[in-house]
């Protein structure tokens, strides 16, 4: 896989960076996050017009059919701007699941709408007692005639408040299968409660009480539910790694500018050798994270499941560790100001800190890496 930017990728990166610098200013982002929204419909429409939301969706459904290399370009720029909108859960993860596993009717109904920004779909697979392991799902799907009745709860649904539909995991009654269902937001018996997360985004808890669905709501076959979900999670991990590398890159720029402007003993802080060494260490960690983001993107084309799992797990752990280091160093290098809520450094630190628990923390992925090695 070639990660050298093509002319089209460079144009996309440049236009997206200009858009973030001019239309998605940090003041606007902060107002959105602190106002309890973390979502701007106008920004969402602009991202759709730029092709961000349909990047990985086939041209047959109104997208562009680009691969992981182009997605890395976009996610890196989104990370630099700490974009709040649900690009990763909807345009990356849900789109990947539907593209690979949905029926023709489901694709016709949802993929063009995701690409155009008209609809948002997100994954609902975490439960209070299952940690990161979807195979332990307790939500149930009991057969009723030709359809199913869903009962159970889901937590930490990424951008669940603004979603038009949810990809919900549930254990099919009378079998060991954990199936994936496409549940519309307006389904009778579905309740959604949203709340803010530490990094300025929003999540939601779902309660499903006798939610009646037709057989056509199942994504793929019942036995394929976990495989379909993992396909989406893999794409999400690769997107998170690219996003984190972009956020680290921008945070280092912010910190270097601060050290160049701040004076101590009549000289800029940037002239002190010990601080130069710390910036150099941050740069090394950022480059390591970017390299592992390339590894994660390459993993999406890997046909060997064990090798794919190893690559993604290694990337997730390495990027999370690098992000934590860069964030902590940036806060410390800003001194007492770094601990305040006035500077942008705190927002980047919070987001980089949350990269670890999202889609499986380091402990979980280290275990997956070991299991894949054993396999």
TrEMBL record:
Domain Acyl-CoA oxidase/dehydrogenase middle, residue spans: 127-211
Domain Acyl-CoA dehydrogenase/oxidase N-terminal: from-to ranges: 6-118
Membrane-crossing residue ranges in chain numbering: none
InterPro entries: Acyl-CoA_Oxase/DH_mid-dom, Acyl-CoA_Oxase/DH_mid-dom_sf, AcylCo_DH-like_C, AcylCo_DH/oxidase_C, AcylCoA_DH/ox_N, AcylCoA_DH/ox_N_sf, AcylCoA_DH/oxidase_NM_dom_sf
Annotated CDD domains: ACAD
UniProt xrefs under SUPFAM superfamilies: Acyl-CoA dehydrogenase C-terminal domain-like, Acyl-CoA dehydrogenase NM domain-like
Cofactor: FAD
UniProt entry keywords in alphabetical sequence: FAD, Flavoprotein, Oxidoreductase
Pfam families for this protein: Acyl-CoA_dh_1, Acyl-CoA_dh_M, Acyl-CoA_dh_N
Family to which the UniProt record says this protein belongs: Belongs to the acyl-CoA dehydrogenase family.
Record protein name field: Acyl-CoA dehydrogenase
Biological source species: Acidovorax bellezanensis
């Amino acid at each position: 896989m070639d990660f050298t930017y093509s002319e089209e990728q460079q144009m996309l990166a440049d236009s997206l960076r200009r858009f973030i610098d001019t239309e998605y200013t940090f003041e606007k982002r902060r107002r959105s996050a602190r106002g309890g929204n973390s979502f701007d419909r106008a920004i969402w429409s602009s991202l759709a017009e730029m092709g961000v939301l349909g990047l990985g969706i086939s041209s047959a459904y109104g997208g562009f059919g680009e691969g992981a290399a182009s997605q890395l370009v976009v996610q890196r720029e989104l990370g630099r701007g700490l974009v709040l909108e649900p690009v990763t859960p909807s345009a990356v993860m849900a789109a990947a699941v539907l593209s690979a596993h949905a029926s023709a009717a489901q694709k016709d109904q949802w993929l063009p709408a995701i690409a155009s920004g008209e609809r948002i779909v997100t994954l609902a697979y975490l439960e209070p007692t299952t940690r990161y392991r979807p195979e332990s799902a307790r939500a149930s799907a009991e057969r009723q005639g030709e359809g199913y009745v869903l009962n159970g709860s889901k937590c930490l649904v990424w951008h669940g408040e603004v979603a038009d539909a949810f990809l919900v995991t549930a254990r099919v009654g009378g079998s060991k299968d954990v199936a994936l269902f496409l549940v519309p937001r307006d389904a009778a018996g579905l309740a959604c409660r949203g709340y803010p997360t530490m990094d300025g985004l929003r999540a939601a808890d779902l309660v499903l009480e006798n939610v009646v669905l037709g057989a056509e709501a199942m994504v793929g076959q019942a036995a394929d539910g976990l495989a379909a979900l993992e396909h989406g999670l893999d794409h999400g991990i690769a997107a998170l790694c690219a996003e984190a590398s972009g956020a680290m890159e921008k945070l280092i720029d912010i910190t270097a500018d601060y050290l160049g402007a701040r004076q101590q003993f009549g000289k800029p802080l940037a002239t002190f050798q010990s601080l130069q060494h710390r910036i150099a260490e941050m740069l090394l960690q950022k480059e390591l994270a970017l390299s592992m983001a390339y590894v994660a993107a390459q993993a999406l084309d890997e046909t060997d499941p064990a090798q794919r799992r190893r690559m993604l797990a290694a990337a997730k752990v390495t990027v999370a560790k690098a992000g934590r280091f860069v964030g902590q160093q940036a806060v410390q290098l800003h001194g007492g100001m770094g601990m305040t809520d006035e500077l942008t450094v705190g927002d980047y630190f919070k987001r980089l800190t949350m990269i670890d628990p999202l889609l499986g923390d380091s402990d979980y992925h280290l275990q997956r890496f070991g299991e894949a090695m054993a396999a």
